[in-house]
Design brief:
The structure is a single chain. This protein is an alpha/beta fold and 413 residues long. The chain is built from 11 helices and 12 strands. The chain has a 5-stranded mixed beta sheet with strand order 1-6-7-9-8, covered by helices on one side. The chain has a 4-stranded mixed beta sheet with strand order 4-3-2-10. A hairpin with an 8-residue loop joins strand 11 and strand 12. Helix 1 crosses helix 2, helix 4 packs across helix 5 and helix 8 crosses helix 10. The protein is flat, with a radius of gyration of 22 Å. 50% of the residues are buried.
């Protein structure tokens, strides 16, 4: 008897309050690195109704006056799409507060000699479920909010506003093979034109979301896993009378989402760490990424762990791979390397032998990670939306599989 199971991951759009905060923090990081690649940055942002607060510890040669920070913040908010003061948060009208100071010298003296900028453990994950070697639920969830932004910016769906969340449930066979896309949840902020006579999000608008956003995204990415029609589940409706093979679509399931963005919910840097990584499929060490320069291993070692795991899977050494690295503040070498392939490793290697291969082929000190992945560049604003992993963009060096052939050869495959 087959024991199938369901697994769910979520993503949030670039206009989600927490992602607004992440993008502002990373825009400030990029500004600092563009002028001074040795900048030390730990920048935190909070956004709420008509207010953005930027704080943290930054040591840099870049110009970082209040006027400069104000300009960076407003430019980022405008790029995200918050330009209408009527919705409670807009680039030209919100108040920007800035409270930045230099990094603690107690941290600097350890980092200056090549040590880690903090203690902690970081994880990386890869599997064969998608062409980018990401778990399927989080990969699809990211593509939904990414395409949501494209449709909004092109005005192909005129009633969309920037704030949105997606959620994807995939049904798996007992051996971990994806069988079908089971359920989609898509909540999107909207204007009044999407509302019916009762003042609620209309079913016509739901159908537009399914026809123009959800169905094209799923067809483009995994048409083979659509095993039935996409069926709209109305708020309060029990899905029991819907065919089991259908892809159940919950669109704005509360009934309405007119008030959103930072006006509807306070946003903070670093509050979407599972969205940023593997959607709960792989472990997370607990440290946020955005607003941190690459001496902070919370970010750089997590990128390296993904790079390692992806190359191991790309080399055919495992169908699934999770890697853990851990560090002590001020100390350069990792305290441990841990690998778990869940029994999917090739017959010619063990998880323990993979650790030896990692030590031989990857530089794991903070300085080695920064040099290997070329991380002292203004590349981070783009990471703060649509996922840090699973997009093979030119600047996302941790997504390359350029070590795969060397690993395969070393393992005797």
């Amino acid at each position: 008897m087959s024991h199938r199971y369901l697994f769910t991951s979520e993503s949030v759009s670039m206009g989600h309050p927490d992602k607004v905060a992440d993008q502002i923090s990373d825009a400030i990081l990029d500004h600092c690195l563009a002028a001074d690649p040795t900048s030390r940055v730990a920048c935190e942002t909070m956004v709420t109704t008509d207010l953005a607060i930027v704080s943290g510890e930054i040591t840099t040669k870049a110009e970082l006056t209040r006027a400069v920070v104000d300009g960076i913040v407003r430019k980022m908010i405008r790029e995200i799409g918050y330009t209408d003061p009527a919705i409670g948060f807009a680039a030209d009208t919100c108040q920007v507060c800035c409270n930045l100071h230099s990094q603690s010298p107690d941290i600097s003296m350890g980092v200056d000699v090549g040590g880690a900028g903090d203690q902690g453990m970081m994880f990386g994950f890869a599997c064969t479920e998608t062409r980018t070697l990401m778990p399927l639920p989080i990969y699809l969830a990211h593509r939904l909010v990414e395409n949501h932004a494209t449709l909004r910016e092109k005005k192909d769906i005129p009633f969309l506003r920037p704030d949105a969340k997606s959620q994807v449930t995939v049904e798996y066979d007992a051996d971990g093979t994806p069988v079908r896309i089971h359920t989609i949840v898509l909540s999107t902020q909207h204007d009044k034109t999407a509302m019916d006579a009762k003042g609620l999000f209309s079913n016509e608008a739901r159908k537009i979301i399914i026809d123009k956003l959800i169905l094209p995204t799923l067809k483009r990415e995994r048409a083979d896993l659509i095993k039935g029609d996409l069926v709209m589940v109305l708020p309060g409706q029990a899905p029991g009378n819907i065919p089991d093979s259908a892809v159940k679509c919950h669109i704005n399931p509360t009934g309405n989402f007119e008030t959103g963005g930072p006006h509807g919910d306070c946003g903070l840097t670093g509050r979407k760490i599972i969205v940023d990584s593997y959607g709960g499929r792989g472990r997370h060490g607990g440290g946020a990424f955005s607003g941190k320069d690459p001496t902070k291993v919370d970010r750089s070692a997590a990128y390296m762990a993904r790079y390692i795991a992806k190359n191991i899977v790309a080399a055919g050494l495992a169908r699934e791979c999770e890697v853990q690295l851990s560090y002590a503040i001020g100390y350069p070498d990792p305290l441990n390397i841990w690998v778990n392939t869940g029994g999917t490793h090739a017959k010619s290697v063990t998880d323990e032998q993979l650790i030896d291969l990692i030590r031989a082929h990857f530089k794991l000190t903070p300085r080695g990670i920064i040099e290997s992945l070329n991380l002292r560049r203004p590349i981070y604003k783009e990471t703060a939306r649509n996922g840090h992993f699973g997009r093979e963009l030119p600047n996302f060096t941790w997504e390359k599989a350029d070590k795969a052939e060397a690993l395969k050869k070393a393992a005797g495959l």
